[in-house]
Amino acid sequence: MAKRTTSGVGGRNGSPLTPYLFLAPYLALFVAFVAFPAVYGLWISLHDWDYMMASQRFLGLQNYANLLDPDSVVFRDFWNGMGNTLLFTVISVPFLLVLPLLLALLLQQKFPGRTFFRAMFFAPYVLGVAVIGLMWRYLLDGNFGLVNAFLGTDISWTTSQPWAWVSLVGVTVWWTLGFNAVIFLAGLGDIPTEHYEAAALDGAGWWASFVHVTLPGLRPVMIFVVVITVLASANMFGQSYLITQGGPSQSTQTAIMVITELGLSRYQMGAAAAQSYLLALFLAVVSIANFWLMRDKDAAVQAKALRAQRRRGGGGGDGHTPLSDPQVPATPASLGTVR
Q1: I want to staple 49 with a disulfide (CB 3.0 to 4.6 A). Which of 209, 270, 305, 317 is the partner?
Q2: Tens digit of pLDDT for each residue in 72-88?
């Protein structure tokens, strides 16, 4: 008779180290390129760090204090960059949410050439920022640019305001529109058609179906798109650096441009690291606020009530899942045997 192997190490379940072996390549890359640089950068921000010198003087929190001191040499440039970053984010994010959503709703319809148009709208996103920046720098040139020639205008798109911001926002929307649209298309495909059929039976029109079916069904996708769009807009660098060079008069110089110039051109790595961590703190707060504002409030209330019920010992105190839990489906084990 064949011997039965017991589960355990080396048995059918395998070694408990197997999952960690599969994760090891990613963990190695994560530690080498994310975790270690983050900790090392924090250490640099506490020093007067100049990589051209043999030793670096410890400053403590002085680099952070300088960012809050109006008399320091880094105060004006940094907060000017933060203001420009905020302005660009506030202007660009609504366009990068509304237009891709409308485009996704249009491309979801069945019409000849739908796949071609999906590919065409996504195509600009595969180009690098260097290609986009250089191409539009020449297209928007006020002297010989094709944009002025096509529109019959004489506008200095990259050297005067507000046209410099119009150019940066327009180029960014054109470049990244397709990516957000593809994400929305995937979310729209996951909404069951039965929901739209039920809404139609209730007499709901297009707008009512959009508000009460589409938007709630897109909530998880919308949270993802909002967060990545805000983060990408707040980290905008290449478009401004290549198209407007931060001008006119530093009016389009973003926070990332200020940090890069301070650290790599003026060799003040400690101050630049402190600025980057302050920017990261602001972005973390904004991301958390986005998650909180766009959360499913009804589900949050139900989860809170369920936790309160469990703390009182009325739900699951005996180790079993209550049948009234709306988030846990009934299973044969929880229903028991009907006699």
Answers
A1: 270
A2: 999 999 999 999 999 99
Residue 84: name the closest of 234, 252, 240, 282 by CA. 252
Can you read off the two tokens belonging to residue 232? 């990408």
- Indicate the pLDDT class of residue 54, thresholds 50, 70 and 90: confident
What's the pTM? 0.80
Is pLDDT above 90 for 334?
no
Q: DSSP per residue over 117-139, as a string?
A: HHHHHHGGGGS-HHHHHHHHHHH
Which residues touch 91 (CB under 8 Å, ≥6 apart)? 165, 169
| Residues sharing a CB contact under 8 Å with residue 326, sequence separation 6 or more, in sequence order | 302
Q: Per the structure block, which two tokens stand in for 238?
A: 């290449």
Query: What CA–CA distance (Å, rounded) separates 279 from 151?
Result: 39
DSSP assignment of 306-336 equals: HHHHHHTTSSSTTSS--TT-TTS---HHHH-
* Structure-token pair, residue 267: 């060799």
